[in-house]
Specification:
By secondary structure, the chain is an alpha+beta fold. The chain has nine helices and 20 strands. The protein folds into two domains: about 220 residues, Rossmann fold; about 110 residues, Nucleic acid-binding proteins (OB fold (Dihydrolipoamide Acetyltransferase, E2P)). About 25% of the residues lie in helices and about 35% in strands. Strand 11 and strand 12 form a beta hairpin. Keywords: ATP-binding, Nucleotide-binding, Transport.
Length: about 375
């Protein structure tokens, strides 16, 4: 027997577009004119610090929050003012939101009854959805009899049981412990691929965003600061905010010299062209794993302040003249050299690993 759920998704429904989407709350702007195109079948994540407008954006997509302006278009249809049940969108929240007095089967049947499907069809679809999340044997249990992870799998099954092309998820794994979270990340990703769903996912956890998403939008104060694949965001951040939000980062105050150099203290550091005015204040960004240290003389000279053994790598803190205290991660490929605190080392900041930008070096992720 062919699956109703997988059959109909082959048509690739689920393209989502937001145009100048805005939400004002009593004089303050929570979402500030967001433009976004998410192709059908993409796993797209809104990532950002608390209060940046992720949930408000998602709720406008779902229809639970009325936009102050702009449009929400799904497969060419503007749904900005269409009630939630008529949008054909599945939603999963952090706090499962299952009906405690209904069995797992009845929870899943609910959205199908709302859509007035017949009993045999409901039984078939609920069976398929439970199979997808491997909970067939729990059909007659109540949510309170299930673990947190199982309850969230029921919530996911309930959100896809009526075969929506778009699934919205707001911090769905936030209440679970780390091990379970990693397992459910994999399960959600494989379910998304199997059903060819468009997923719009909200999280403030950068690792979760990086490991699950095709593309990520980093939000800041109601706007999208940068959008791209996880690798694009990590490798070529457009701002200190993005670089700080995704992964660890050294932020070094500098001054523009010419098109190919910036001054870090007294040292002229070669960098890619950056187009800053001569003598302009700027910052040099470099990831800890890109900082090179050695016993040989190098562009910079530093003294090891501290070293932490992390198993696969050692993390050094090095006081570098003119650059301040830098973090440097040295991975252990087989053996590894250990530089003790107090040891003088040569430090290189390779030109292909640094980003130079105007910016506020005090900007830190929350
Ligand atoms: N119902 C509301 N009434 C007034 N202000 C609101 C309301 N909902 C959200 N806000 C405000 O809008 C801004 C964005 O909130 P939102 O919940 O979308 O952020 P978020 O990025 O999802 O944060 P978090 O990760 O903490 O959930 C915040 O300043 C918040 O205080």
């Amino acid at each position: 027997m062919t699956s109703v759920i997988t059959d109909t998704t082959k048509t690739r429904r689920g393209a989502v577009s937001l145009r100048k989407l805005t939400k004002d709350y009593a004089g303050s702007r929570a979402v500030d004119g967001i433009d976004l195109d998410i192709p059908a079948g993409e796993f797209f994540t809104l990532l950002g610090p608390s209060g940046c407008g992720k949930t408000t954006t998602l709720m406008m997509l779902a229809g639970f929050v009325e936009p102050s302006g702009g449009s929400v278009v799904i497969d060419g249809r503007d749904v900005a003012h269409v009630p939630p049940p008529d949008r054909d969108i599945g939603v999963v929240f952090q706090n499962y939101a299952l009906f405690p007095h209904l069995t797992v089967f009845q929870n899943l049947a609910f959205p199908l009854e709302m859509r007035r499907l017949g009993r045999p069809e409901i039984a078939r679809r609920v069976g398929e959805a439970l199979k997808l999340v491997r909970l067939e044997q729990w059909a007659d249990s109540y949510p309170g009899q299930l673990s947190g992870g199982q309850q969230q799998r029921v919530a996911v099954a309930r959100a896809v049981v009526f075969n929506p092309p778009v699934l919205l998820m707001d911090e769905p794994l936030g209440a679970l412990d780390r091990k379970l979270r990693l397992q459910l990340q994999l399960e959600i990703r494989s379910l998304q691929r199997e059903l060819a769903l468009t997923v719009v996912y909200v999280t403030h956890d950068q690792d979760e965003a990086m490991s699950m998403s095709d593309r990520v939008a980093i939000m800041r104060e109601g706007r999208i600061e940068q959008m791209g694949t996880p690798a694009e965001l990590y490798e070529t951040p457009v701002s200190v905010f993005v670089a700080d939000f995704l992964g660890d980062n050294n932020t070094i105050p500098a001054r523009a010299a010419d098109d190919r150099h910036v001054m870090v203290g007294d040292v002229a550091l070669r960098t890619p062209a950056h187009g800053l005015a001569r003598d302009a204040d700027c910052v040099v960004l470099i990831r800890p794993e890109r900082v090179r240290i050695s016993d040989a003389p190098a562009t910079f000279s530093g003294v090891v302040h501290d070293v932490v053994y992390l198993g696969s790598a050692s993390q050094y803190e090095i006081d570098v003249a003119g650059a301040g205290r830098l973090r440097c991660a040295v991975s252990h490929n087989g053996g590894h050299a250990v530089w003790e605190p107090g040891r003088r080392v040569g430090v290189e900041l390779p030109a292909d690993s640094v980003h130079v930008m105007p910016g506020d070096p005090t900007s830190k992720k929350e």
